[in-house]
Amino acid sequence: MYYIKKIFRMLLSIFSIGTFSFLLLELIPGDPETTILGIEASAKDLENLREQLGLNLSFGTRYWNWLCGVFQGDLGISFKYKEHVFNLILERLPLTISIAFISIFIVFIMSIPLSFFLHNTKNKRIKKIGESILSIFISIPSFWLGIIFMYLFGIILKWASTGYNNTWQSLILPCLVISIPKIGWISMHLYSNLYKELREDYIKYLYSNGMKKIYLNFYILKNAFLPIIPLTGMLLLELITGVVIIEQIFSIPGIGRLLVQSVLMRDIPLIQGLIFYTSTFVVLLNFIIDILYSLLDPRIQVGEQ
């Protein structure tokens, strides 16, 4: 019953967000046909384009057509690109997913050892320095860091490309820029959880019964990592739905940059498709996190029941 409720809420959320986004775009001032043809276009040309794009139909008819298309996997045709919105999203999605998973890998390959190091070190001065560095990481704006990295590593040292050039090497710099603030964020939370978990009674019991430290660390990490799961979901969500500023700075043709271009061109089908894609991914990811969390900690299912 717990999972059925979650699935029902997920489907209802996707439908509600899709409907609300469609209505919201209707209330935005301005005309797509004027953006496409320019302000000097004649009234007849504007009217012909409206008819061609289907904008002369009533709101209810356009909403019904869009809803039927969604159930058939058709999100409409882009005004600017003259292609199916679904295909445009699929073209850019692999690059955005690549950036997301490379960044996630960098974050956790750095955060877990760093958290354990700060947790286990007895030197208070090193702990203070480590905590200060992590705080600086968290507070650094990504766009500022991206510009500094481009200038330092791309222009002065010439170690990396200043923009995307269809090679995986050109993704290293933007992934590092994305990862650094997240390393500080995840490390601070994990470090705090390790500190709390070490003082639990079950740890004292296992330690007093002679459990080796390496196995004890696995128990500590497992329970300390539970509160990190939602944060990881939020991080993954932010990356896969498109890191808009970083994609703009490094000229990466991903989901985030596509969204910016669609808004500037008032490409309504593309904006609607991207909002629907983003909202669907948000709801699906939250559903997966809830299920994963309930499997790792069965008390959640019992509490809801």
TrEMBL record:
The keyword Transmembrane applies. GO terms for cellular component: plasma membrane. Keywords: Cell membrane, Membrane, Transmembrane, Transmembrane helix, Transport. Belongs to the binding-protein-dependent transport system permease family. It is found in: Cell membrane. SUPFAM superfamilies: MetI-like. GO terms for biological process: transmembrane transport. PROSITE patterns: ABC_TM1. Its main location: membrane. This is Peptide ABC transporter permease. It is a multi-pass membrane protein. It comes from Fusobacterium nucleatum subsp. nucleatum. The chain crosses the membrane at residues 7-25, 95-121, 133-159, 171-194, 214-233, 272-296. The keyword NADP does not apply. InterPro entries: BPD_transp_1_N, MetI-like, MetI-like_sf. Residues 93-293 form the ABC transmembrane type-1 domain.
